[in-house]
Amino acid sequence: MTAARTVQTDDTTKPGRLAQLWLWSARHPAVFPAAMIVITCAIIGAVNPDFLHVANLFDILRASAIRGLLALGVFVVLAAGGLDVSFTAIAAFVMYSLTLIVVNFLPGAGIVPILACAALAGGVLGAVNGLLVNALRAPALIVTIGTQYALRGALLSFVGTALFMNIPGSMSAFGQMPLATVTTARGLTVTLPAYVLLTVIVALATSWMLNYTLIGRAVFAVGGKPEIAARLGFRVAHVRIFVFAYAGMLAGIAGVLHVSANRLANPFDLAGTELPVIAAVVLGGARITGGSGTVLGTMLGVILITLVSSVLILLGIPSSWQTAILGGFIILAGLFFARIDRMILK
Amino acid sequence: MPELPATRGTPFLETRALHKFYGGVHALRGVSLTINSGGSYHLLGENGCGKSTLIKIISGAQPASSGQLLIRGQDMTGLDPIAALDAGIETVYQDLSLLPNLSVAENIGLSQQLVESSGRLFRRISPAQIDDVARRALSEVNLPTDPEFLARQIQTLPIAIRQLVAIARAIASKAGLVIMDEPTTSLTKREVRNLISVIRRLQESGTAVLFVTHKLDEAREIGGTGLVMRDGELVQQCDVTQASNAEIGLWMTGRELEQGRYRRSPGTPPAPLMQIQGLGLKDAYRDIDLTIGAGEILGVTGLADSGRNDLAKSLAGLAPPDRGKVVLEGRPLDPSEPASMISAGIAYVPEDRLTEGLFLEKSISANVTMSVLDRLRNSLGLLNRRKARALTQKTLDELRIVAAGTEAPVQSLSGGNQQRVLIGRWLATSPRVLILHGPTVGVDVGSKDTIFRIIQAQAENGTGIMLISDDLPELLQNCDRIAVMRDGAVSRIFTAEGLEEETLYNEIAGSGGENAREG
User: Fold this and answer.
1) What is the ipTM of this complex?
2) Within this chain, do residues B125 and B182 fall inside the same structural domain, yes or no?
3) Percent of chain A predicted with pLDDT > 70
4) Where are the beta strands (DSSP E) in B136-262?
5) Which domain holds residue B377?
6) Measured between CB atoms, which of B113, B516, B519 is closest to A214?
7) Is residue A11, in this structure, part of any structural domain at all?
8) pTM for the structure as a whole
């Protein structure tokens, strides 16, 4: 009986110009961190023209490499509707134990097998998260808080607490391998390390996987509506285990990178760095509720965080202020993406 | 699995003595039926009679507890969703089963990729193939096929379009059987006609269609076999075009349903209870003058944009009017917030029970007692649980709500029972005036009958009732008077007794009258 308001199919499927802009932004959330990066760079550049130098770009990229790997893992878990806070504990556990084993038993091991072992070990630890989330039907956040503490405790109780600097030669060589170098006006030589490439490759591979494989689309399907994904025949349990294993794998690799870059293995490292990584992913446009986000957005989110937290030092801004500015960006991101949702959702 | 040719004489699908237990509940009791290729079938029955369970088993979403399922003569008992899809069984659930955050194209085309990989996930997908499948399916249901539409996220589309996308997905693969669970609920008349022509084309190509529906008119328009279920059993098979509403109602409920008027109009005009005087709200309605007498049932109807919805919300305190006043037993009311209207004795049962009315995951008891908690206090000011349970049990009994107990979550109930819980909550407040907005939307005939009897009983007790509805037979069966709204104003008030549906309809549609009848 609701006559006269016959839905004009053609009209409702052809959005107006403004609506199209919102729809476009929803599909390309990277536009937000990109805009924030441009604004931040413009302001810093205006105050301190020295900033706009390739050397600083190298610094930012280097400082983003490890956080970038971790963020990719978090993003994949978030896209599937989960949340992982145990990845730093996995990274620390893998990096310290593996470095210890290699130094003591296989001092001649090459970097490729070391990275492969780290990926495998991290993947196994991550898969445990996934299995627990499935088996306990518990919220991923709670489960991974648990495994984070358990892993950190196990590392410090059973593996060791002493930091050591005699890391394997292959690792330290990998950490220092240059990709490019520039000399600043003041005669400082700044290197772009080769391991940055590893993050770039992982990012490209992750993006390909998410967009062009069934598991990738399944991640978003499960993140969107798990019960419907299951009804359509997606194996939700497999997807959950996969995303946590993937995050664990990237955490393992990031751990080895961390040791290689710093040339020391400290079991207390990385603890407490979860939140900036999750913040980077959210800045990149992934909703905390799952089912959205892009790899590009995530990577730009990481760069934005690095930019704010490391480069503001150049301006002589105290670190307490950096935290406040970061907080402002995150709130802005929340507003922006909530606005998009309000504009496009029916 | 390769497509097997349907041998002549072998039905597409056959079930033999299917049983299903959920815990202690015996939901299906030996259902045996046959579905032939190219046929159309209408699964009819009250909410909670086992229809949903049956289609879940056929579509592989749940296994049967016992019994057999044969597809093209082969035993496929215990199949999973992918095996069901592979065997050519497509289901359009009432919630549409669309993934809100994926694109139109993916929602249509991903299933095929999943079936081709037998559910294994570590496979490449072919976006070109997905788009191809989507374009073909979309053109079948007359939706656009441009790249922009293909890339639209489902959650950005209106519900009617989503419905068509879901149907497009079901017919994308050459399905042998398409199951549709109330597919026309959110469609307009024009879209329903569009759907029926799609269904005819499907049938011509040999696909069987199984509808789960409450709308007998539409079932008759499509034609085919009616499968009537009651209490988990298949009680009757009939030709839907031949069986009368009364017959089907009897099969579904096992009792005679009132086909005539429920209302026994009182001899003398009732004393006025609530008066609406010159009520107006900008861009919604204006100059509304209505009176509801004690024990009177006043129907209010009109098109969706006639202002009746806003009027209802205003009376509930949800959309404060900017002009006029509402007077209850001589006292003016304050319609600026729901709390003041509730305490004055106005109860509003909203149209959309799921989003506006019920707390689905909470217990029946919590839902029923919510509005009367202050009456259930003990001397310490704490909730007296025994009283709360007693009140809930009384509501369950009086409204004939079928539930596992007072503490069962509302979402475990069928639609008709949920609606009764909602009505029960407001009856618990002992209202002076009860405003019911579309009380039987999405409710089967048996539940409708129960709800009508509740309404009549309330009126007998002297409650003033405003029944806002689209359902003309419902209004004619229940009301004393019916007010028709058009373009924000009351255009005419009829006496319901002896009123022709046609007359009422013409008044609603307006003088032009060519806005064809909807739903």
Assistant:
1) 0.89
2) yes
3) 96
4) 177-181, 208-212, 225-230, 233-239
5) 347-430
6) B113
7) no
8) 0.75
